[in-house]
What we know:
The chain has 182 residues and is an alpha+beta fold. The chain has helices at 36-42, 47-56, 59-63, 76-83, 85-93, 97-106, 115-118, and strands at 69-74, 108-109, 123-127, 134-139, 144-146, 150-159, 162-167. Helix 1 crosses helix 2, helix 2 packs across helix 6 (97-106) and helix 4 (76-83) packs across helix 5 (85-93).
Amino acid sequence: MTSTYGYIQSYDYRQMYDIQDLRSTKPNTTYPDWSLSKILQDSPQFSIYFYILKLSKLDILYGDIQGNFTLFVPDDRNLIQKYGKKNLDNLLKNMNLYTARQIILCSSLDKQLFEPFIRSTNVMYLYTRVTNSKLNIENYSDCTIINGNIKVKCWDIKANNGVIQTTDDIIMPEYMAIQYVD
């Protein structure tokens, strides 16, 4: 049996596009317990940094339990005290995706580093997740200083996929220095 018409039905995929898309438009925002993203989400002292993390769209990466990161996270109270609530609100309101990503990547390392290792020498350089960006860490008797002006306040908040070191200021690439008006 032969056909006088072309075999177009075997190449007609119209029926595949009549199916309704049932996928959710909202991404899943639940993070595994004890992941870095979950700890930042649940801690009110890290709400500003978590906002930047969500804005950067890297929250899923830092919520993945297979990650292995060290985050240097500023405490909200120190940021508000240093920059003022109004200046911080303006900074966060006008922040774009690129700036948010640079802040998150500049304040994170691709390995877990705990206090004994970081304080083991007087000076060390650690490469961040931003290309050609490094943290200059100086240790004094009771104080650890990052990039000459950022102090580490609290050590070793452990998560399944990393560790959080609390700082008194936000770590940014040199070309993105925060300028504020008193």
